[in-house]
Hints:
The structure holds 2 protein chains of 2 kinds. Chain A is an alpha/beta fold.
Amino acid sequence: MDSGFYRAFEDRYRGSRELISSRLEAYLPFLAPLKTLYQDLPVLDLGCGRGEWLELLCREGYAPTGVDLDDGMLDACHALSLPASKDDAISALQKLPDNSLVAVTGFHLAEHIPFPVLQQLVAEALRVLRPAGLLILETPNAESLVVGTNSFYLDPTHERPLPNLLLSFLTEHSGFVKSKIVRLQEEQSLHDASRQVGVWDVLAGTSPDYSIVAQKEAAPEQLAAFETAFETSYGVSLDQLAVRYDQALERRFSGLEDQMAVGQAEYLTRDNFREAMESIQNRQTEQLLALQERSSNDMAVLQKQCFDLQQRHNDVAARADALQVDLNASLGNAHNWYLRAMAYEQQLEAMRHSTSWRITGPFRFAVRAVSWPFRSGRATAGQILRRGATHARLWLACRPALHRTVTAVLNRLPGLQAKLRSLHENPHVAQTPASASDPQHGVIDHAPLTQRGRIIESALKEAMMKGRK
Amino acid sequence: MRIVIDMQGAQTESRFRGIGRYSLSLAKGIVRNRGEHEVYLVLNGMLSDSIESIRTAFIGLLPQSHIRVWYAQGPVCDHNPANAARKEVAQRIRQACIDDLQPDVVHVTSTVEGYIDDAVIGSPLLDGKAVVSATLYDLIPLISPKQYLDNDAGYKKHYLEKFEAFKNYGLLLSISDFARQEALSLLPLHEATIVNVSTAADDIFRPITLSLDEREAFRKKFGLRDMFVLYSGGADERKNLPHLIKAFASIKAQVGNVQLVFAGKMPEYHVDRYRTLALEQGLSETDLVFTGYITDLELASLYSSCRVYVFPSWHEGFGLPPLEAMKCGAPVIGANTSSVPEVIGWSDATFDPFDIQAIADKLLQVLSDDVFRAALATHGLQRAEQFSWDLTGKASVSAFEQALSKVERSSGRVLEPMSTQDGIQTLVAALADGGHLQTDELDLERLAKAIDYSLQGPADKPTLFVDISELCKHDGKSGIQRVVRSLLVEWLKHPPEGYVIKPVYTKAGEPFYRYAAQFTTLFLGKEISEADLDDPISYRAGDIYLCLDLLMDVLPHKQAYLDTMRTHGVSIFFVVYDLLILQLPHCFVESLQEHYIKWINAVARYDGALCISRAVADELREWLVDNAPPRDRPFRIGAFHLGADIDQSMPSTGLPENPALRIESLEAFPHFLMVGTLEPRKGHAQTLDAFELLWAEGVQANLIIVGKHGWLVDELAARLVGHPELGKRLLWLEGVSDEYLEHLYNHSDCLIAASYGEGFGLPLIEAAQYSLPIIARDLPVFREVAGEFAWYFTGASAQDIADSLAEWLKLYENKQHPQSAEMPWLTWKGSAQQLIGEIDKCAF
């Protein structure tokens, strides 16, 4: 295949150097005990690629070498002065003597080679390793549903997925005394028991990579140093996730069922409901009856009051009639006196025109002149007239025929009419109440004061305050 | 010289009688003959009913900015002593309003008002600066106190106060020479203080000839005979009618079948009295006729057809009826006392009113001597020409000039200009000194408002209030709001010379308007912290209110406030975008029509409408012929065109993703474009029908419809979506970006504008800007916008349109179709200028 293509492909999908390095640090706990057993620590990395593992090992004090068939990759390693050479994995191993290496590693190599070649590789590795030496092969974990069905096949150079049990059986069968399946690169939060696991996690949460870490036989005390690393559990498996998911669902459902049971216990049964409604209805009926009784009592009281008022009204009307009769009588009387007065007046006229009166004229004048200073004013006469005028008008209003005659007479005497009107009129005409929305009373429009208006208002208030002091 | 005329004489109940008519006519006469001088009118805001008719009467004579209103808190009538404090405050406010105008001469049309009404005229001594002048009508109440004063003590006191005040006026203009002499004899005045400016009669009085039918009807209505002696006027005692009746009765036998006619409304009492008297004197029932109330025109007809007009009144201030009669060509005889001989102007035509025999002789002479009668008529017509309101106006103005020059010479008086601010301070100080602020009767807020509205200084640059209420509330990006925004931007960035632009708005629940200060600041892109508060607006006479937005639901609620603005002197105009809802009701939702009718009826009550095209202006005029409410003021209609510079502020971009929606996917035939929201009014359905006919005939043409799904077009939309030609020769693009629209314009071959009605026709201009040929329906508005630069079609059926299109295609092939590139259009700058020009023309 075109190396340029593979390079570009790797660049996109492999991940950055830093990312790879950080992942590879997971293996350091396995390799660390080797430092206690041997002085020199030669490690061979098969298919070293860009050399991240080589770089890490160098840093940690090991003596790694790497082989790869890709010139582009090798150039990258040489650019960083990493010990890499171009060679095939099998031939590189075959060149080495027995018991020469402390570790043989191959990251994402196994899925690229056919199975017979892999078998040979494992066998050669066993030969080449010193006692307690480690073989580490990392490969995609097809246990993850997403990996096994889809993302494994992203790389067109992958052969077929290698189930973890296959690789572990292979190493065991080849003669390694210990084989551990180490799952890696899963989402860290999945280790937290409180994290909710959903369907997607079940499908895709399983550790996407795993490696087989196999150890060559050695003395028990040598092997004991590695126990911690080997006994630790790593990664997340598919069944773990599925079980967690089921359990969570189960808990939720049982929780809901409990709540439902509680609710049902509190819920009203149909009979209870009917009973409750009946009691409410009974109470309401009682209240209504009480109300009805009260209102009929009130009604009786009111009726009685009404009847009393009616009685009193009748009494008053009767008295008014009686008064009317008296008035008529007195008016008749008045007319009587009027006639008599007329008669007297005539007599008086006659007397005035008589000679004896005229002769005594000058004498009377003298008497009047003397007593003039002691005469009182005419004020009282006006008041009496004013009072009489209202009564006279009322009296006239009850007699339409007389009223008409009087009006006709008055119309011919406008002066008299005017005088009577002025007597009768109330000098103070009732003021119309100031309505809130007419311009006559200063309400111009319904807007609040403008800015200038507010200034004027405060000036007025100020002037008013000053005036108050 | 600046003259201020107090018009309260024409505002009170007097406005229906002689004093009111004299005041108004005198003011008009002065205004017409003012020459170089300036005239202001001041009106009393408490008598608001009368203000509109006065403003209307001066249209064309005075700009509205010179008619001012002052306000005070009423009631203030003299009748009620409880009003005394308010009356004094009102007097001061009125005086402050007048002083604020810095007049040289103040003329009071009637000094005796204010007893039973809210008119207020203070003593002339309140005015320290100007020459105060007043019209002197007559002093009849003083001369006959028994008749007029002694009944009512309150009125007597009021009148005598006013009478005393006459001494303090700097100038009195009398209505006749007799009135002048009378005043000089009763008041200690200098001769030069009273000037006679005379009176005139209304122009409606002129010789009227009736047709035979009209004469018959007229005669029947009033029960007239061929020959009658006419009298018109009141029935007071001084009119001397009993003597006239007696005199007439005495000559009746000698003159044959002549009637005596009394014209005009008289009180029942007098009518009865005179009838009885006539019967007693031997006249028959129909010899004395009373017409009751008659219009001026009927009166003129009576004058024109009477045998002789007789006016026996023994005391008059002027005596208008004989002048009216003379103007109509009637032979006139009258008393030789008071002002009547001055009016008639020929001693042979007068008689001694106290002598029944003299009256009788003169009547007989006139009725039997035809030559004399003819001479009287001719003399009357000539004499009447010496009385006109223009002559009176000129005489008044020269009296003012003389009085002013005398004062300036004697006191060396120099008018220092006083600002309105000083005026307010002086007024506040005066009110405080007078102790008015201490009483509880005054509402300080109303007082402050009254002062704010009354003292507004001499006329200045008018303000143009632009109502943008809808835009302030929410920019709905409709066509109308685009217009409002564009005009507003133009006016804010380049304010027109003659106006101060103030955008204003109103909210629901507030029956008044506020300045849109906050909105404007944001609109211009400045920080909101720079904005002032939105205060209520402050308006003055002469300002203009223009409603730019379409506020169908708001206007009915704000009418009270707008009416007040109008009374105060603001001209109210509305922009009318179209009358489509009335003309094409089936194209709009039903409820909209009701609202629109309410709105347009409200608009018709105000001062005018500015329409966005001459076509709409014509339509509005037509609608008003049948639907306009009764009004006195003319309704001004103006027209302007909208701007067409494309709004480049934020052009939207984006091409349609679906390749089937691209114009390139159609066949390579001529592309016809239609742009606009789908609604029944735009005529898409008919155009589609036409195209179907063309396609059936095999014509090569593509139709591209660009427009969102509007209203009442579900059927059309379904038709388009399921059309067999969709994607081949037909495209419907529902929402396109400005970028893609430009692309369409550039690649199309013709724009079709098939609307049944439009307010303006912006799509045509858009097409012209891309030099796209246009096919448009033959509407007046399209003709107005596109003129000869478009091809027009008419027709109710699709076939007509199809034929027209086919014709155009033939022309197109020969490149002889009308081009649109030269079509003239306005930018928004030009549109705004045009609108200001129209406002200038329409403003009162």
